[in-house]
Design brief:
By secondary structure, this protein is α/β, with parallel strands linked by helices. It has a single domain, classed as Peptidyl-tRNA hydrolase (Rossmann fold), CATH 3.40.50. It has six helices and seven strands; from the N terminus they run βαβββαββαβααα. A seven-stranded mixed sheet has the order 2-3-4-1-5-7-6, with helices on both faces.
Amino acid sequence: MLFSRKGSPDSAAGGIEYIIVGLGNPGTQYENTRHNAGFITLDTIAEKNGIKVDRLKFKSLCGTGVVGGKRALLIKPSTFMNLSGQAVTEAMSFYKIPPERTIVIFDDISLAPGKLRIRRKGSDGGHNGIKNIIYLSGSDQFPRIKMGVGAKPNPNWDLADWVLSHFTEDEMKSLLEAAEKAAQAVEKMVNGETDKAMNLFNS
């Protein structure tokens, strides 16, 4: 295992207790695309908690602040989706944060926009960003929030084209409503209330 469970929340490297990750692709051409649901949700969490995610570190845009009473590092990897694990594991290693205290937020085509699903752990489910995090960290034990972005409108659509397509106005409104719920869920998750968050917000 790359990360020790003994990493103390009060470690010398800044007192970070949790890492909260939103997955997506950097660059203006990818703004408001389905694959960037993690970025969009992280922005909502940051705004709600008064955290500026504008510092370049760990191959990411990042910021630190308090979420749910816990000191947290918020990161948006700038590695592009398929290499998300490089950014995430670099931050985990620096702050000695185990997978169990690394919350990852990402898009899910099996859920409609406006829906979200919280899981304690699990496989990559075919998501390349999650696949890379699991591969580089050597663990699938990190909690995650899946944000619904909708299924392909027909089987002939190329999956890459679909996840890089833009939300409609109505879909974006639904996603932002789900992001508000995700922000509430994260506050519970960092306080050991993941089951309660699942009961409240899973759809």
